[in-house]
Specification:
By secondary structure, this protein is mainly alpha-helical. It has a domain at 89-124. It has five helices and two strands; from the N terminus they run ββααααα. The protein has helices spanning 29-54, 67-84, 90-99, 101-108, 113-119; strands at 2-7, 10-15.
């Protein structure tokens, strides 16, 4: 597959090779191109971009032993947990749980919901984590 990329006014081209188990009759060029674009689009938009922008993974300097893999596994678990909550704004949900860790522990079952709510900072209106409707901007102290 031939690729062209333009960045800062400069165009570069390259060739990428892919292996498939599809027979030639089912692997037309247009079909393969669509499959490849879809696959890499899902990876880049669903995983890499989120890990880089939301979790700032590229700036992490952990490098000894198994630490990088362990940290990546922890990040993936956190993202999967937030996605299981049907959160539409991952960054806002992370900020919300950072400010109110008791809410996170209540969701995980480590503390009772009533305890988390009674000790939590009071806000003008309850909102779900990362609802994207201002919940990440509500400020209140302990």
């Amino acid at each position: 597959m031939e690729r062209a990329r333009t960045r800062h006014g400069k165009t570069t081209t390259g060739t990428a090779y892919y292996i498939t188990s599809l027979p030639r009759s089912k692997a037309r060029a247009a079909q393969l191109a669509a499959l490849i674009r879809d696959h890499w689009g899902r990876i880049e938009n669903g995983v890499h971009w989120v890990r880089d922008v939301v979790l700032d993974e590229d700036r992490c300097t952990i490098f000894r032993g198994h630490s990088p893999q362990n940290r990546a596994m922890t990040r993936n678990a956190a993202l999967n947990f937030l996605r299981s909550l049907k959160t539409d704004n991952l960054a806002a949900a992370l900020r919300n749980f950072t400010r109110n860790s008791l809410r996170l522990f209540a969701l995980l079952g480590y503390v009772k919901q009533a305890v988390a709510l009674s000790l939590a900072p009071h806000t003008s209106s309850p909102s779900s984590p990362g609802s994207g409707r201002g919940s990440d901007r509500q400020r209140s102290g302990w």
